[in-house]
Design a protein that fits this description.
Blueprint: H1 7-33, H2 50-53, H3 59-62, E1 70-71, E2 87-89, E3 95-99, E4 104-108, E5 114-117, E6 120-130, E7 136-137, E8 144-151, E9 157-166, H4 171-183, E10 190-191, E11 214-220, E12 228-235, E13 239-241, H5 243-250, E14 269-271
Parallel strand pairs: 1-7, 9-12, 9-13
Antiparallel strand pairs: 2-5, 3-4, 3-10, 4-6, 5-6, 6-8, 8-9, 11-12, 11-14
Bound molecules: zinc ion.
Length: 274
């Protein structure tokens, strides 16, 4: 048992411990606040190296349920019942358009857009674009893919995706991409489109909110940290946008797509409308 005589010797020890804990607190605070390591779609910070850039990204290489994937429609599981497409409850909403350095993202100004999947309510957080597409259908890539990212109360993520090919002008994307064409949008910049947007129209969902059949599987975020546990729903009905609309997006981002990942035995289901 150390007596009181030991106390003076302990003071420098305690001081150095205290000092150390302050030093340790510095980087720790930075860790919790810092944005994750810089990544890109090319070169030595591209998808093949994401897992090496930050310990938080290791799952990009080690995971067994990564996204995107190639959806082979000859191996789809079509359940007799009970495996449904989400019910979309989207409304006209004001958005902020942001260039986040990896894509163009639309952030709703309220939490009024929901989907219900397997009885759980998920709120739309943002939607964004990849070109060319990340998912492939029967090996085929598409010109553009939109991802609608939703979260439930517990932070679980569901992403609904739509694939686009060049073709007719898309009326829903018209104003959105006109903003890009007219004003451009530097990385980090934000702009507010003049008119609200109902994202349901991008899915070509009927006014009764009925969903289209969707491909469903369990995957991950397609950008670092590539977290798994994401429920994916990819619309089986590709949409169109014009050459000029595609060019407007591609003038900012082209090649912001992660390559398809190994299925590792995962099954892809056909989620049917209600
Ligand atoms: Zn995405």
């Amino acid at each position: 048992m150390p007596g009181p005589g030991f106390v003076p010797y302990l003071i420098p020890v305690l001081l150095s411990l205290l000092l150390f804990s302050f030093c340790a607190a510095g980087p720790q605070r930075q860790t919790s606040q810092r944005s994750i390591a810089a990544w890109s779609y090319t070169g030595d910070t591209g998808p093949a190296y994401w897992h090496t850039l930050d310990s938080a990204y290791r799952i990009a290489a080690e995971g067994q349920a990564q996204s995107p994937i190639n959806i082979d429609t000859s191996f789809l599981i079509v359940p007799q019942s009970g495996y449904l497409a989400p019910a979309f409850n989207y409304t006209e909403t004001d958005y902020v358009l942001e260039n986040n350095g990896h894509t163009i993202e639309l952030i709703p100004e309220n939490g009024n857009n929901h989907i219900n999947l397997d009885g759980i309510d998920y709120v739309l957080q943002q939607f964004h674009f990849h070109s060319p597409s990340e998912h492939r259908i029967d090996g085929k890539s598409f010109d553009l893919e939109v991802h609608f990212v939703h979260k439930d109360h517990d932070g679980n993520v569901t992403v609904a995706g739509i694939l686009f090919n060049e073709g007719a002008e898309n009326n829903i994307l018209k104003e959105l991409f006109a903003v890009l064409e007219k004003k451009g949008l530097a990385a980090g910049a934000r702009v507010k489109p003049e008119a609200p947007l109902n994202p349901a129209k991008l899915f070509a969902i009927g006014i009764d909110g009925r969903a289209v059949p969707l491909y469903r599987y369990n995957g991950s975020l397609t950008t670092p940290p590539c977290t798994e546990g994401v429920k994916w729903c990819i619309s089986s009905l590709p949409q169109e946008l014009s050459k000029a609309q595609l060019a407007a997006f591609r003038s900012l981002y082209y090649g912001n797509n992660r390559p398809v990942q190994d299925l590792h035995g995962r099954l892809v289901f056909m989620g049917l409308p209600f």
